[in-house]
């Protein structure tokens, strides 16, 4: 973090077409179907966590 040099070599900072497409469009990893799958997985993980927490609370409160 102490290196304060700034590259002035524009050729070294340029992206080729494939890299630019991946950065700009996200490729196939950001399709609506994949986003729905991710949110569904997150929802299920949250519900599992709530169920587990409830189970632990019930077990602790009984003793």
Q: Ends: how far apart?
A: 53 Å
Reported for the largest beta sheet, the result is: none
What form results from the Cα inertia axes? Answer: elongated
Strand portion, in percent? Answer: under 5%
Low-confidence stretches: none
Helix content: 55-70%
Report what the structure shows:
The chain is mainly α and 63 residues long. 70% of the residues lie in helices and 0% in strands. The chain is built from three helices and no strands. The protein has helices spanning 10-13, 17-25, 32-62. The longest helix is centred in the C-terminal third of the chain and has 31 residues, at 32-62. It is elongated and about 70 Å long.
Task: Give me some keywords for this one.
63 residues; mainly alpha; 3 helices; 70% helix; elongated
What's the topology here?
Blueprint: H1 10-13, H2 17-25, H3 32-62
Write a concise synopsis of the structure shown.
It contains three helices and no strands.
């Amino acid at each position: 973090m102490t290196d304060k040099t700034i590259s002035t070599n524009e050729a070294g900072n340029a992206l080729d077409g494939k890299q630019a497409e991946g950065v700009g469009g996200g490729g196939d990893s950001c399709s609506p179907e994949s986003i729905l799958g991710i949110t569904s997985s997150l929802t299920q993980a949250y519900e599992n966590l709530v169920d587990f927490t409830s189970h632990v609370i019930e077990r602790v409160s009984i003793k």
